[in-house]
Amino acid sequence: MELNSKSPLFENAKNGDRRSLAKLLTRIENGEEIDIPTTKAPWVLGVTGPPGAGKSTLIDRLASHWSENKQRVAILAVDPSSPISGGALLGDRARMVHSNPAQVYFRSISARGNHGGIPNGLEAMIQALSESGWDRVIIETVGVGQGEYAVISVADRILLVDGPDRGDVLQAEKAGILEIADLIACNKSDLPGSLKAMKSIEDGLSYSDNPPPVISVSSLTGDGIENLVFRIEALEPDLGKSTARAKISLESIMISRIRRSPLYDDVIQDISQNKITSKQGAERMEENYGGI
Amino acid sequence: MRVVIAKAGLDGHDRGAKIIARAMRDGGHEVIYTGLRRTPEQIVAIARDEDASAIGISTLSGAHARLIPSICQLLRAEGMDEVTVFVGGIIPDIDRGPLYDCGVRAIFGPGTSVNDPIRFLENVNERIQQNLPVGVGQGGTWRWS
Ligand code: B12
Ligand SMILES: Nc1nc2c(ncn2[C@@H]2O[C@H](COP(=O)(O)OP(=O)(O)OP(=O)(O)O)[C@@H](O)[C@H]2O)c(=O)[nH]1
Ligand SMILES: [Mg+2]
After folding, report:
1. Overall number of domains in chain B
2. For an interface test with B, which of A93, A106, A132 has the most B Cβ atoms less than 10 Å from its Cβ?
3. CATH number of the domain within which A189 lies
4. Residue A11 covered by a domain
5. A37 in the Ramachandran plot: left (φ > 0), alpha (ψ -120 to 50) or beta?
6. I want to staple A49 with a disulfide (CB 3.0 to 4.6 A). Which of A3, A16, A161, A264 is the partner?
7. Taking every pair of C-alpha atoms in chain B, what is the biggest distance, in angstroms?
8. pLDDT, tens digit, 9 for 90 and up, residues A66-100
9. Contact B23, B56 (CB under 8 A)
10. CA distance A106 to A166
11. pTM for this model (two decimals)
12. How far is B1 from chain A (nearest CA, A)?
Protein backbone atom coordinates (compact mmCIF):
# COMPACT_ATOMS: atom_id res chain seq x y z
CA MET A 1 0.00 0.00 0.00
CA GLU A 2 1.33 3.38 -0.94
CA LEU A 3 1.63 6.11 1.65
CA ASN A 4 -0.27 9.19 0.55
CA SER A 5 -2.12 12.15 2.00
CA LYS A 6 -5.18 9.95 2.59
CA SER A 7 -3.31 7.29 4.56
CA PRO A 8 -4.59 7.06 8.16
CA LEU A 9 -1.00 7.17 9.42
CA PHE A 10 -0.41 10.50 7.74
CA GLU A 11 -3.81 11.93 8.73
CA ASN A 12 -3.23 10.97 12.36
CA ALA A 13 0.32 12.29 12.30
CA LYS A 14 -1.05 15.57 10.99
CA ASN A 15 -3.54 15.68 13.85
CA GLY A 16 -0.70 15.46 16.33
CA ASP A 17 -0.56 11.70 17.00
CA ARG A 18 3.11 11.11 17.63
CA ARG A 19 2.86 7.35 17.50
CA SER A 20 1.45 7.46 13.97
CA LEU A 21 4.16 9.93 13.01
CA ALA A 22 6.82 7.55 14.34
CA LYS A 23 5.34 4.61 12.43
CA LEU A 24 5.07 6.68 9.27
CA LEU A 25 8.76 7.59 9.50
CA THR A 26 9.71 3.94 10.07
CA ARG A 27 7.94 2.92 6.89
CA ILE A 28 9.65 5.64 4.91
CA GLU A 29 12.98 4.64 6.46
CA ASN A 30 12.34 1.06 5.38
CA GLY A 31 12.01 2.12 1.80
CA GLU A 32 8.34 2.89 1.17
CA GLU A 33 7.65 5.79 -1.15
CA ILE A 34 5.34 8.59 -0.07
CA ASP A 35 3.10 10.58 -2.29
CA ILE A 36 2.13 13.68 -0.33
CA PRO A 37 1.73 17.00 -2.14
CA THR A 38 4.16 19.68 -0.97
CA THR A 39 2.10 22.61 0.28
CA LYS A 40 5.00 24.56 1.76
CA ALA A 41 8.76 24.55 1.47
CA PRO A 42 10.11 22.80 4.58
CA TRP A 43 12.32 24.81 6.92
CA VAL A 44 15.44 22.66 7.28
CA LEU A 45 18.63 23.36 9.20
CA GLY A 46 21.50 20.96 8.60
CA VAL A 47 23.94 20.79 11.51
CA THR A 48 27.30 19.34 10.61
CA GLY A 49 30.81 19.24 12.02
CA PRO A 50 33.39 16.81 13.37
CA PRO A 51 32.55 14.11 15.93
CA GLY A 52 32.34 15.47 19.44
CA ALA A 53 32.19 19.15 18.41
CA GLY A 54 28.93 19.50 20.29
CA LYS A 55 26.34 19.23 17.51
CA SER A 56 23.76 17.41 19.64
CA THR A 57 24.30 19.60 22.69
CA LEU A 58 23.87 22.70 20.53
CA ILE A 59 20.78 21.30 18.81
CA ASP A 60 19.29 20.70 22.26
CA ARG A 61 19.74 24.42 23.01
CA LEU A 62 18.25 25.54 19.69
CA ALA A 63 15.31 23.18 19.97
CA SER A 64 14.54 24.28 23.48
CA HIS A 65 14.72 27.95 22.46
CA TRP A 66 12.32 27.51 19.57
CA SER A 67 9.91 25.23 21.35
CA GLU A 68 9.66 27.72 24.24
CA ASN A 69 8.59 30.17 21.56
CA LYS A 70 5.79 27.83 20.53
CA GLN A 71 7.47 26.52 17.41
CA ARG A 72 7.14 22.83 16.66
CA VAL A 73 10.65 21.47 16.30
CA ALA A 74 11.58 18.06 14.92
CA ILE A 75 15.11 16.66 14.98
CA LEU A 76 16.45 13.86 12.80
CA ALA A 77 19.82 12.75 14.16
CA VAL A 78 21.87 10.48 11.93
CA ASP A 79 24.55 8.21 13.43
CA PRO A 80 26.81 5.75 11.62
CA SER A 81 25.99 2.05 11.54
CA SER A 82 28.46 -0.72 12.25
CA PRO A 83 29.81 -2.09 8.98
CA ILE A 84 30.18 -5.52 10.59
CA SER A 85 26.89 -6.10 12.38
CA GLY A 86 24.70 -3.55 10.60
CA GLY A 87 23.55 -2.38 14.05
CA ALA A 88 23.95 1.14 15.36
CA LEU A 89 24.38 2.90 18.66
CA LEU A 90 22.27 6.02 18.42
CA GLY A 91 23.48 8.24 21.24
CA ASP A 92 22.63 11.80 20.21
CA ARG A 93 19.42 11.72 22.19
CA ALA A 94 21.35 11.41 25.44
CA ARG A 95 22.37 15.07 24.97
CA MET A 96 18.78 16.30 24.96
CA VAL A 97 18.52 17.70 28.46
CA HIS A 98 16.95 21.14 28.03
CA SER A 99 14.45 20.53 25.27
CA ASN A 100 11.17 19.06 26.42
CA PRO A 101 10.44 15.68 24.83
CA ALA A 102 6.72 16.37 25.13
CA GLN A 103 7.12 19.21 22.64
CA VAL A 104 10.16 18.45 20.54
CA TYR A 105 10.06 15.43 18.25
CA PHE A 106 13.41 13.66 18.21
CA ARG A 107 14.18 10.70 16.00
CA SER A 108 17.46 8.80 15.87
CA ILE A 109 18.38 7.44 12.45
CA SER A 110 20.98 4.86 11.54
CA ALA A 111 22.93 5.63 8.39
CA ARG A 112 22.38 1.93 7.53
CA GLY A 113 25.62 1.69 5.62
CA ASN A 114 24.95 4.80 3.64
CA HIS A 115 28.13 6.53 4.74
CA GLY A 116 28.70 8.12 1.39
CA GLY A 117 25.56 10.15 1.32
CA ILE A 118 22.28 10.69 3.04
CA PRO A 119 20.31 7.78 4.51
CA ASN A 120 17.56 6.47 2.30
CA GLY A 121 14.35 8.34 2.67
CA LEU A 122 15.75 11.26 4.65
CA GLU A 123 14.28 13.77 2.25
CA ALA A 124 10.89 12.07 2.34
CA MET A 125 11.02 12.01 6.14
CA ILE A 126 11.64 15.76 6.15
CA GLN A 127 8.71 16.28 3.84
CA ALA A 128 6.42 14.11 5.98
CA LEU A 129 7.40 16.10 9.08
CA SER A 130 6.95 19.44 7.42
CA GLU A 131 3.58 18.49 5.94
CA SER A 132 2.34 17.19 9.27
CA GLY A 133 2.92 20.53 10.93
CA TRP A 134 6.50 20.60 12.17
CA ASP A 135 7.69 24.18 11.63
CA ARG A 136 11.38 23.49 11.92
CA VAL A 137 13.31 20.39 11.03
CA ILE A 138 16.90 20.04 12.25
CA ILE A 139 19.18 17.39 10.77
CA GLU A 140 22.30 16.24 12.64
CA THR A 141 24.79 14.60 10.28
CA VAL A 142 27.13 11.71 11.01
CA GLY A 143 29.89 14.30 10.96
CA VAL A 144 32.46 12.30 9.06
CA GLY A 145 33.33 11.73 5.45
CA GLN A 146 30.85 12.60 2.77
CA GLY A 147 27.94 12.69 5.19
CA GLU A 148 29.31 15.97 6.42
CA TYR A 149 28.72 17.62 3.07
CA ALA A 150 25.85 15.60 1.70
CA VAL A 151 23.36 17.25 4.05
CA ILE A 152 23.35 20.12 1.58
CA SER A 153 21.16 18.05 -0.69
CA VAL A 154 18.33 18.08 1.87
CA ALA A 155 18.89 21.24 3.95
CA ASP A 156 18.84 24.80 2.71
CA ARG A 157 20.52 26.24 5.79
CA ILE A 158 23.84 24.79 6.95
CA LEU A 159 25.34 25.31 10.38
CA LEU A 160 28.87 24.04 10.93
CA VAL A 161 29.85 23.33 14.54
CA ASP A 162 33.51 23.31 15.43
CA GLY A 163 35.55 24.21 18.45
CA PRO A 164 38.71 23.80 20.48
CA ASP A 165 40.07 20.56 21.90
CA ARG A 166 40.46 19.10 18.47
CA GLY A 167 43.89 20.61 17.98
CA ASP A 168 43.52 20.52 14.21
CA VAL A 169 40.57 22.80 13.59
CA LEU A 170 42.04 23.66 10.27
CA GLN A 171 42.91 20.47 8.51
CA ALA A 172 43.40 21.02 4.82
CA GLU A 173 40.35 18.98 3.88
CA LYS A 174 38.22 21.06 6.19
CA ALA A 175 38.67 24.11 3.99
CA GLY A 176 35.88 22.95 1.70
CA ILE A 177 33.40 22.39 4.47
CA LEU A 178 34.08 25.81 5.96
CA GLU A 179 32.94 27.36 2.71
CA ILE A 180 29.69 25.50 2.27
CA ALA A 181 28.45 26.60 5.70
CA ASP A 182 26.03 29.50 6.03
CA LEU A 183 27.07 29.98 9.62
CA ILE A 184 29.85 28.61 11.76
CA ALA A 185 29.39 28.08 15.48
CA CYS A 186 32.66 27.93 17.34
CA ASN A 187 31.38 25.91 20.29
CA LYS A 188 32.77 25.39 23.81
CA SER A 189 33.59 29.06 24.36
CA ASP A 190 33.79 28.15 28.05
CA LEU A 191 37.02 26.22 27.40
CA PRO A 192 40.47 27.84 27.44
CA GLY A 193 41.39 27.12 23.81
CA SER A 194 38.31 28.76 22.33
CA LEU A 195 39.84 32.09 21.28
CA LYS A 196 42.54 30.24 19.41
CA ALA A 197 39.93 28.07 17.73
CA MET A 198 37.97 31.16 16.61
CA LYS A 199 41.09 32.63 15.14
CA SER A 200 42.02 29.46 13.38
CA ILE A 201 38.56 29.18 11.77
CA GLU A 202 38.69 32.80 10.69
CA ASP A 203 42.13 32.26 9.19
CA GLY A 204 40.76 29.30 7.28
CA LEU A 205 38.13 31.55 5.76
CA SER A 206 40.45 34.38 4.87
CA TYR A 207 40.68 33.36 1.21
CA SER A 208 36.99 32.96 0.66
CA ASP A 209 35.05 35.71 -1.16
CA ASN A 210 31.97 35.57 0.95
CA PRO A 211 32.91 34.04 4.30
CA PRO A 212 30.12 32.88 6.61
CA PRO A 213 29.89 34.58 10.02
CA VAL A 214 31.70 32.78 12.85
CA ILE A 215 29.87 32.92 16.17
CA SER A 216 31.28 31.96 19.50
CA VAL A 217 28.89 29.90 21.66
CA SER A 218 28.89 27.57 24.62
CA SER A 219 26.23 24.89 24.44
CA LEU A 220 27.19 23.97 27.97
CA THR A 221 26.47 27.35 29.59
CA GLY A 222 24.12 28.75 26.94
CA ASP A 223 26.38 31.73 26.23
CA GLY A 224 25.97 33.14 22.74
CA ILE A 225 22.98 30.94 21.88
CA GLU A 226 20.58 33.89 21.54
CA ASN A 227 22.94 35.53 19.10
CA LEU A 228 23.26 32.32 17.11
CA VAL A 229 19.47 31.90 16.96
CA PHE A 230 19.19 35.47 15.71
CA ARG A 231 21.71 34.74 12.96
CA ILE A 232 19.94 31.55 11.95
CA GLU A 233 16.61 33.36 11.75
CA ALA A 234 18.18 35.95 9.50
CA LEU A 235 19.43 33.38 6.97
CA GLU A 236 17.90 33.57 3.57
CA PRO A 237 17.18 30.08 2.31
CA ASP A 238 19.74 29.23 -0.27
CA LEU A 239 17.54 29.22 -3.35
CA GLY A 240 20.09 29.77 -6.06
CA LYS A 241 22.71 27.32 -4.88
CA SER A 242 26.33 28.26 -5.32
CA THR A 243 28.22 26.10 -7.81
CA ALA A 244 29.98 24.30 -4.96
CA ARG A 245 26.68 23.45 -3.31
CA ALA A 246 25.00 22.43 -6.52
CA LYS A 247 27.86 20.04 -7.20
CA ILE A 248 27.80 18.38 -3.80
CA SER A 249 24.06 18.23 -3.82
CA LEU A 250 23.90 16.49 -7.20
CA GLU A 251 26.78 14.16 -6.50
CA SER A 252 25.49 13.00 -3.16
CA ILE A 253 22.07 12.26 -4.61
CA MET A 254 23.71 10.27 -7.40
CA ILE A 255 25.81 8.28 -4.95
CA SER A 256 22.76 7.43 -2.86
CA ARG A 257 20.89 6.32 -5.95
CA ILE A 258 23.71 4.13 -7.14
CA ARG A 259 23.82 2.43 -3.76
CA ARG A 260 20.10 1.94 -3.75
CA SER A 261 20.08 0.32 -7.17
CA PRO A 262 18.93 -3.31 -7.07
CA LEU A 263 21.99 -4.22 -9.14
CA TYR A 264 24.45 -2.71 -6.70
CA ASP A 265 25.13 -5.71 -4.47
CA ASP A 266 25.43 -8.12 -7.39
CA VAL A 267 27.82 -5.89 -9.28
CA ILE A 268 29.96 -5.35 -6.16
CA GLN A 269 30.11 -9.10 -5.64
CA ASP A 270 31.10 -9.78 -9.23
CA ILE A 271 33.86 -7.20 -9.03
CA SER A 272 35.16 -8.51 -5.73
CA GLN A 273 35.19 -12.07 -7.09
CA ASN A 274 37.13 -10.87 -10.09
CA LYS A 275 34.39 -11.91 -12.53
CA ILE A 276 34.24 -8.45 -14.06
CA THR A 277 36.34 -5.31 -13.83
CA SER A 278 35.08 -2.22 -12.00
CA LYS A 279 34.71 -0.51 -15.34
CA GLN A 280 32.53 -3.33 -16.66
CA GLY A 281 30.50 -3.09 -13.47
CA ALA A 282 29.91 0.60 -14.02
CA GLU A 283 28.89 -0.09 -17.60
CA ARG A 284 26.44 -2.74 -16.52
CA MET A 285 24.79 -0.33 -14.08
CA GLU A 286 24.61 2.39 -16.72
CA GLU A 287 23.05 0.12 -19.32
CA ASN A 288 20.27 -0.95 -17.01
CA TYR A 289 19.52 2.19 -15.13
CA GLY A 290 20.99 5.05 -17.07
CA GLY A 291 23.53 5.45 -14.31
CA ILE A 292 21.20 5.17 -11.33
CA MET B 1 15.19 -4.36 16.06
CA ARG B 2 14.91 -0.80 17.35
CA VAL B 3 15.66 -0.97 21.07
CA VAL B 4 15.65 1.82 23.65
CA ILE B 5 18.13 1.39 26.50
CA ALA B 6 16.93 3.57 29.35
CA LYS B 7 18.19 4.89 32.66
CA ALA B 8 15.34 5.95 34.90
CA GLY B 9 15.19 8.13 38.00
CA LEU B 10 18.20 9.48 39.86
CA ASP B 11 20.36 6.38 39.32
CA GLY B 12 23.73 7.44 37.92
CA HIS B 13 25.24 3.98 37.36
CA ASP B 14 25.57 3.86 33.60
CA ARG B 15 28.40 1.40 32.93
CA GLY B 16 26.16 -1.64 32.61
CA ALA B 17 23.66 0.20 30.36
CA LYS B 18 26.44 1.35 28.04
CA ILE B 19 28.01 -2.11 27.83
CA ILE B 20 24.66 -3.62 26.98
CA ALA B 21 23.91 -0.89 24.43
CA ARG B 22 27.19 -1.54 22.64
CA ALA B 23 26.70 -5.30 22.72
CA MET B 24 23.27 -4.91 21.16
CA ARG B 25 24.67 -2.75 18.40
CA ASP B 26 27.22 -5.50 17.73
CA GLY B 27 24.31 -7.93 17.69
CA GLY B 28 22.86 -5.98 14.75
CA HIS B 29 20.25 -3.90 16.57
CA GLU B 30 19.56 -0.18 16.32
CA VAL B 31 20.02 0.97 19.89
CA ILE B 32 18.81 4.31 21.20
CA TYR B 33 20.43 5.29 24.48
CA THR B 34 18.32 7.72 26.51
CA GLY B 35 21.05 9.13 28.71
CA LEU B 36 20.70 9.45 32.48
CA ARG B 37 17.84 10.57 34.70
CA ARG B 38 14.77 10.07 32.57
CA THR B 39 11.30 9.99 34.08
CA PRO B 40 8.93 7.11 33.25
CA GLU B 41 6.89 9.56 31.14
CA GLN B 42 9.97 10.56 29.17
CA ILE B 43 11.01 6.96 28.59
CA VAL B 44 7.60 6.10 27.20
CA ALA B 45 7.61 9.22 25.00
CA ILE B 46 11.07 8.29 23.72
CA ALA B 47 10.00 4.73 22.84
CA ARG B 48 6.95 6.12 21.08
CA ASP B 49 8.83 8.77 19.06
CA GLU B 50 11.59 6.34 18.14
CA ASP B 51 9.08 3.63 17.20
CA ALA B 52 11.02 1.15 19.35
CA SER B 53 10.01 -2.52 19.53
CA ALA B 54 11.64 -3.04 22.92
CA ILE B 55 12.77 -1.10 25.99
CA GLY B 56 15.61 -2.30 28.21
CA ILE B 57 15.69 -0.50 31.55
CA SER B 58 18.82 -0.46 33.68
CA THR B 59 18.47 0.17 37.43
CA LEU B 60 21.03 -0.28 40.18
CA SER B 61 19.77 2.22 42.71
CA GLY B 62 16.96 0.23 44.28
CA ALA B 63 14.16 2.33 42.75
CA HIS B 64 13.05 -0.42 40.34
CA ALA B 65 9.96 -1.36 42.34
CA ARG B 66 8.49 2.08 41.79
CA LEU B 67 9.82 3.10 38.37
CA ILE B 68 9.37 -0.05 36.32
CA PRO B 69 5.68 -0.72 37.05
CA SER B 70 5.04 2.92 36.29
CA ILE B 71 6.72 2.62 32.87
CA CYS B 72 4.76 -0.57 32.10
CA GLN B 73 1.47 1.07 33.03
CA LEU B 74 2.14 4.17 30.96
CA LEU B 75 3.04 2.02 27.95
CA ARG B 76 -0.29 0.22 28.16
CA ALA B 77 -2.13 3.53 28.64
CA GLU B 78 -0.51 4.78 25.41
CA GLY B 79 -1.68 1.64 23.62
CA MET B 80 1.88 0.42 23.18
CA ASP B 81 0.97 -3.12 24.24
CA GLU B 82 3.28 -4.83 21.75
CA VAL B 83 6.46 -3.21 23.09
CA THR B 84 8.69 -5.70 24.94
CA VAL B 85 10.04 -4.56 28.32
CA PHE B 86 13.16 -6.08 29.88
CA VAL B 87 15.25 -5.05 32.84
CA GLY B 88 18.86 -5.24 34.01
CA GLY B 89 20.90 -4.25 37.04
CA ILE B 90 20.53 -5.00 40.71
CA ILE B 91 17.09 -6.49 41.30
CA PRO B 92 16.76 -8.68 44.44
CA ASP B 93 14.99 -12.01 43.88
CA ILE B 94 11.99 -11.07 46.00
CA ASP B 95 11.27 -8.08 43.77
CA ARG B 96 11.27 -10.04 40.54
CA GLY B 97 7.82 -11.64 40.73
CA PRO B 98 5.97 -8.31 40.88
CA LEU B 99 7.98 -6.99 37.93
CA TYR B 100 7.11 -10.03 35.79
CA ASP B 101 3.50 -9.56 36.87
CA CYS B 102 3.40 -6.07 35.44
CA GLY B 103 4.60 -7.25 32.03
CA VAL B 104 8.41 -7.41 32.21
CA ARG B 105 9.65 -10.33 30.05
CA ALA B 106 13.24 -10.71 31.26
CA ILE B 107 15.52 -9.63 34.13
CA PHE B 108 19.32 -9.68 33.85
CA GLY B 109 21.41 -9.32 37.02
CA PRO B 110 25.08 -8.48 37.65
CA GLY B 111 27.50 -10.75 35.84
CA THR B 112 25.13 -11.21 32.91
CA SER B 113 26.97 -12.29 29.78
CA VAL B 114 26.29 -9.72 27.09
CA ASN B 115 25.16 -12.55 24.84
CA ASP B 116 22.13 -13.33 27.01
CA PRO B 117 20.11 -10.20 26.25
CA ILE B 118 20.93 -10.65 22.57
CA ARG B 119 19.64 -14.20 22.62
CA PHE B 120 16.60 -12.92 24.45
CA LEU B 121 15.86 -10.46 21.64
CA GLU B 122 16.32 -13.23 19.08
CA ASN B 123 13.77 -15.27 20.98
CA VAL B 124 11.41 -12.28 21.06
CA ASN B 125 11.77 -11.97 17.30
CA GLU B 126 11.00 -15.65 16.76
CA ARG B 127 7.92 -15.34 18.90
CA ILE B 128 6.73 -12.26 17.00
CA GLN B 129 6.98 -14.28 13.76
CA GLN B 130 4.83 -16.97 15.37
CA ASN B 131 2.32 -14.41 16.69
CA LEU B 132 3.07 -15.32 20.30
CA PRO B 133 2.82 -12.67 23.04
CA VAL B 134 6.00 -10.72 23.85
CA GLY B 135 4.71 -7.22 24.63
CA VAL B 136 4.05 -5.47 27.91
CA GLY B 137 0.31 -5.51 27.36
CA GLN B 138 -0.11 -8.78 25.48
CA GLY B 139 -0.57 -11.03 28.52
CA GLY B 140 0.53 -14.65 28.63
CA THR B 141 3.04 -15.96 31.11
CA TRP B 142 6.06 -16.20 28.82
CA ARG B 143 9.28 -14.94 30.31
CA TRP B 144 12.92 -15.49 29.51
CA SER B 145 14.89 -17.78 31.81
C1 B12 C 1 30.85 1.42 40.02
C2 B12 C 1 29.83 1.75 41.09
C3 B12 C 1 29.54 3.08 41.28
C4 B12 C 1 30.14 4.19 40.43
C5 B12 C 1 29.28 4.33 39.16
C6 B12 C 1 30.06 4.74 37.91
C7 B12 C 1 29.18 4.72 36.70
N8 B12 C 1 29.22 5.79 35.92
O9 B12 C 1 28.44 3.79 36.43
C10 B12 C 1 30.00 5.40 41.41
C11 B12 C 1 31.24 5.50 42.26
C12 B12 C 1 29.74 6.77 40.74
C13 B12 C 1 28.85 4.95 42.29
C14 B12 C 1 28.06 5.80 43.02
C15 B12 C 1 27.06 5.39 43.89
N16 B12 C 1 26.75 4.12 44.22
CO17 B12 C 1 27.46 2.65 43.31
N18 B12 C 1 28.26 0.99 42.73
C19 B12 C 1 29.16 0.73 41.83
C20 B12 C 1 29.44 -0.79 41.83
C21 B12 C 1 30.68 -1.03 42.65
C22 B12 C 1 29.62 -1.44 40.47
C23 B12 C 1 28.55 -1.08 39.42
C24 B12 C 1 29.09 -1.36 38.04
O25 B12 C 1 29.44 -0.45 37.30
N26 B12 C 1 29.21 -2.63 37.68
C27 B12 C 1 29.73 -3.06 36.41
C28 B12 C 1 28.58 -3.16 35.40
C29 B12 C 1 29.08 -3.64 34.05
O30 B12 C 1 27.68 -4.10 35.91
P31 B12 C 1 26.12 -3.81 36.06
O32 B12 C 1 25.83 -2.38 36.10
O33 B12 C 1 25.59 -4.66 37.16
O34 B12 C 1 25.55 -4.35 34.68
C35 B12 C 1 25.50 -5.72 34.33
C36 B12 C 1 24.18 -6.38 34.68
O37 B12 C 1 23.58 -5.87 35.86
C38 B12 C 1 23.35 -6.22 33.48
N39 B12 C 1 22.64 -4.96 33.23
C40 B12 C 1 22.74 -3.75 33.81
N41 B12 C 1 21.91 -2.89 33.23
C42 B12 C 1 21.27 -3.53 32.25
C43 B12 C 1 20.28 -3.14 31.36
C44 B12 C 1 19.78 -4.05 30.44
C45 B12 C 1 18.74 -3.61 29.48
C46 B12 C 1 20.25 -5.39 30.45
C47 B12 C 1 19.72 -6.35 29.49
C48 B12 C 1 21.21 -5.79 31.35
C49 B12 C 1 21.72 -4.86 32.24
O50 B12 C 1 24.29 -6.39 32.45
C51 B12 C 1 25.54 -5.78 32.82
C52 B12 C 1 26.64 -6.62 32.27
O53 B12 C 1 26.72 -7.84 32.93
C54 B12 C 1 28.15 -1.34 42.51
C55 B12 C 1 28.31 -2.62 43.29
C56 B12 C 1 28.17 -3.82 42.41
N57 B12 C 1 29.03 -4.77 42.60
O58 B12 C 1 27.27 -3.87 41.54
C59 B12 C 1 27.77 -0.17 43.44
C60 B12 C 1 26.33 0.02 43.84
C61 B12 C 1 25.42 -0.18 42.62
N62 B12 C 1 26.27 1.48 44.27
C63 B12 C 1 25.53 1.64 45.26
C64 B12 C 1 25.35 2.92 45.85
C65 B12 C 1 24.52 2.94 47.12
C66 B12 C 1 25.92 4.07 45.28
C67 B12 C 1 25.78 5.49 45.84
C68 B12 C 1 24.39 5.89 46.32
C69 B12 C 1 26.85 5.62 46.92
C70 B12 C 1 26.82 6.90 47.71
N71 B12 C 1 26.29 6.78 48.90
O72 B12 C 1 27.29 7.91 47.20
C73 B12 C 1 26.23 6.37 44.64
C74 B12 C 1 25.00 6.81 43.81
C75 B12 C 1 25.33 7.41 42.49
C76 B12 C 1 24.09 7.72 41.68
N77 B12 C 1 23.83 8.96 41.36
O78 B12 C 1 23.35 6.84 41.33
C79 B12 C 1 24.85 0.38 45.75
C80 B12 C 1 23.36 0.32 45.37
C81 B12 C 1 22.55 -0.27 46.51
C82 B12 C 1 21.15 -0.62 46.13
N83 B12 C 1 20.80 -0.98 44.93
O84 B12 C 1 20.34 -0.63 47.01
C85 B12 C 1 25.78 -0.73 45.13
C86 B12 C 1 25.02 -2.02 44.82
C87 B12 C 1 26.92 -0.96 46.13
C88 B12 C 1 26.42 -1.62 47.41
N89 B12 C 1 26.55 -2.93 47.53
O90 B12 C 1 25.94 -0.95 48.29
N91 B12 C 1 28.70 3.65 42.26
N1 LIG D 1 32.92 22.43 27.79
C2 LIG D 1 31.97 22.23 26.86
N3 LIG D 1 31.65 20.97 26.50
C4 LIG D 1 30.69 20.81 25.57
C5 LIG D 1 30.02 21.90 24.97
N6 LIG D 1 29.15 21.40 24.05
C7 LIG D 1 29.26 20.07 24.10
N8 LIG D 1 30.19 19.69 25.01
C9 LIG D 1 30.62 18.34 25.35
O10 LIG D 1 31.26 17.77 24.23
C11 LIG D 1 30.98 16.36 24.14
C12 LIG D 1 30.38 16.01 22.79
O13 LIG D 1 29.14 16.67 22.64
P14 LIG D 1 28.03 16.18 21.61
O15 LIG D 1 26.94 17.18 21.62
O16 LIG D 1 27.69 14.77 21.84
O17 LIG D 1 28.86 16.29 20.26
P18 LIG D 1 28.45 15.80 18.79
O19 LIG D 1 29.11 16.71 17.84
O20 LIG D 1 26.97 15.69 18.70
O21 LIG D 1 29.11 14.36 18.75
P22 LIG D 1 28.81 13.16 17.73
O23 LIG D 1 27.33 13.09 17.52
O24 LIG D 1 29.34 11.98 18.46
O25 LIG D 1 29.57 13.47 16.49
C26 LIG D 1 30.04 16.07 25.31
O27 LIG D 1 30.80 15.58 26.37
C28 LIG D 1 29.45 17.42 25.65
O29 LIG D 1 29.04 17.52 26.99
C30 LIG D 1 30.38 23.22 25.38
O31 LIG D 1 29.87 24.24 24.91
N32 LIG D 1 31.37 23.32 26.33
MG1 LIG E 1 25.78 14.03 18.26
Report:
1. 1
2. A93
3. 3.40.50.300
4. no
5. beta
6. A161
7. 38
8. 999 999 999 999 998 888 898 999 999 999 999 98
9. no
10. 28
11. 0.91
12. 9
